[in-house]
Amino acid sequence: MTVVTRDAVTLAPFGVPEPELQYSAGTPAIAAVDLVREYPRKRKDPVRALQGLSLTVAQGEVHGLLGPNGAGKTTLVKILSTILLPTSGQATVCGHDVVRHGRDVRELIGVVMGGDRGLYTRLTGRQNLEFWGALQKVPRKVLRSRTEHLLERLGLAAKADARVETYSRGMKQRLHLARGLIGDARVLFLDEPTMGMDPVAAREFRKLIGELRDEQRTILLATHDMTEAESLCDRVSFVRDGTVVATRSPHAVAGLVSAVQGLELDSADAALAATLAEVPGVTSVTTDGATTRILVRSQDDFPRLLHLLADHGVTSLRTLRPSLEDVYVRLIGDRGLEV
Amino acid sequence: MGTVRAGFVLQMRFYRRYPDLLVPLLTAPLYGGIFAMIMRYNGRTDLVGAVSLTPFYMSLWWFALFSGGWIIQTDRWEGTLEYLVSAPADFAAVVFGRVGATMLSGVAAFAETWLFARYVLRGDVAVRHWGVFAGSFALTLFAMAATALLMAATFVLARNAVTFSNSASFPFYVLSGILVPIALLPGWLQPLSEAVFLSWSADLLRASIATGPVPHPVRGMVMIALLGTCALAAGYTVLRRILGQVRRTGELGLR
């Protein structure tokens, strides 16, 4: 078994000595086995946020957690970052048990939660980073240069000495990320990091996360944003009711529901569209300008549909592959506004 | 030490950003004036010096207790509490550093109270036993910071720590004998005073400005150090246990 120090596997952009924690190069960055987490309630049955969740994330992987509100994503992130204890099951970060070796885990991780909270808003961005860096045990000299580096890298240098309460949402999120990086974390937990950001800020933020991926950091990204997951993640796990229902690469998820979801053809006339809508298994027929999209329930419905189209002289058509969002809706279920 | 220092620096920065935390510095002279007038009205001008220093203890206690509650409360409101416990640094050391910074405000409160007592109230507050004064003063600051850590630990469990901390002051003012002499308390209550370090501190400080020898100075200082050390150990232990508990219950992030 090859044992490497963190120096050997980190593209440390800060040029600083790394902590002496050691772990095997083959050890998963994150491993959760049968994790259960219950929240006790007075005079009521406990709420089960995680129900035997298992997950493995390799070192250097960007792994997406997709699921609706209440699925258990944040609870998982909190357990892995030692904020919460699991009711049962086991979880490790770079081989360190999150319950028994919490301190070792905390030296390896950075946590970035979405939203406005989590920063000292009356202090400046620089003061926040200096404080959180000290808590990450970064030596004082290193901390000063690392703070400057991160402020510069995340585009906050111009507002470094302004109070955080004057920052925009996007700036706060970047400061959150800088805080997560101040300890040169090997493993980053990002819980809906672009929540509430405008599209331009979110795109810039995703670019930053892409850079972190290139530095071989392991990132666990809990998100609702399919574009984000598709563009950033090596693999995604769909979480429903406290358990992982599937894990695939974003490009392979289509196979989870069906290789082909429907057909697209040059605009069908109204009569043909009405006929198509009557075919058993067809779930929707929509015409948008020059194209008509036909969605089916399963692949078994295709032969009947193709015969009908051939009978009507349609010779040109394209298959529709399901997007990540389509897969999400199929796997998780369309719950509307239910929480 | 780096963690304690980080907490200390953070709290000093907060004092600049939240000047309202220094309100006791405004009220201390007023209390001093009230106590001195009561003594003068009753013809006990010999006690004016001693009672006019009482607001120092009240301010120090308020700084420590309120800060303990305020630290935990603001970390809940700001959502920083969860980040603090997910950092490798010892959370108790952060809190101890922060309450340690509040002791500097206590030093300022003493200077202000003494100057007001000496030059405005014309009380006899000249320090006559410097060794006792310096030793008991330093130990009092340490014991107060340790007690504040213990209080802060219990505030982790309280959803509204500030309200709780506001109401916890007066029992200690009474038990420590800084408002009324312990000899006037009911007999069954008096032994409890010995477990409050502030009662030993107040005795030594008053004795250090009095004429004549200081009775049992070493015993007093040992008691302050002992009670402070016990509070520190209890604070660390309780905080660790409570953090374990809230990690189990999931109440850490609740506002």
Describe the structure.
- The complex is a heterodimer of chains A (339) and B (255).
- Chain A contains twelve helices and 16 strands.
- Chain A has 339 residues and is of the alpha/beta class.
- In chain A, helix 4 (125-135) packs across helix 5 (140-153).
- The relative contact order of chain A is 0.13.
- Chain A has two domains: 3-254, Rossmann fold; 260-320, Alpha-Beta Plaits (2-Layer Sandwich), CATH 3.30.70.
- Chain B has helices at residues 2-17, 24-41, 48-52, 54-78, 81-85, 91-119, 130-155, 161-167, 169-175, 190-193, 197-208, 217-249.
- The longest helix of chain B is centred in the last third of the chain and has 33 residues, at 217-249.
- Chain B is built from twelve helices and no strands.
- The chains are: A alpha/beta (339), B mainly alpha (255).
- Chain A binds chain B through residues 39-40, 78, 81-85, 103, 106-107, 109, 111, 113, 115, 117-123, 127, 130-132, 134-137, 140, 163, 179, 183, and chain B through 2-3, 5-6, 9-10, 13-14, 17-18, 78-80, 82-89, 94, 244, 247-250, 252-253.
Short overview:
The complex is a heterodimer of chains A (339) and B (255). Chain A is built from twelve helices and 16 strands.
Question: Helices and strands in order, then pairings?
Answer:
The complex is a heterodimer of chains A (339) and B (255).
Chain A: E1 3-5, H1 6-9, E2 22-24, E3 30-41, E4 44-57, E5 62-66, H2 73-80, E6 88-93, E7 96-97, H3 102-108, E8 109-113, H4 125-135, H5 140-153, H6 169-181, E9 187-191, H7 199-214, E10 218-223, H8 226-232, E11 235-240, E12 243-248, H9 254-257, E13 262-266, H10 270-278, E14 282-288, E15 291-296, H11 302-311, E16 317-320, H12 324-332
Parallel strand pairs in A: 5-10, 5-11, 8-9, 9-10
Antiparallel strand pairs in A: 1-2, 3-4, 3-6, 6-7, 11-12, 13-15, 13-16, 14-15
Chain B: H1 2-17, H2 24-41, H3 48-52, H4 54-78, H5 81-85, H6 91-119, H7 130-155, H8 161-167, H9 169-175, H10 190-193, H11 197-208, H12 217-249
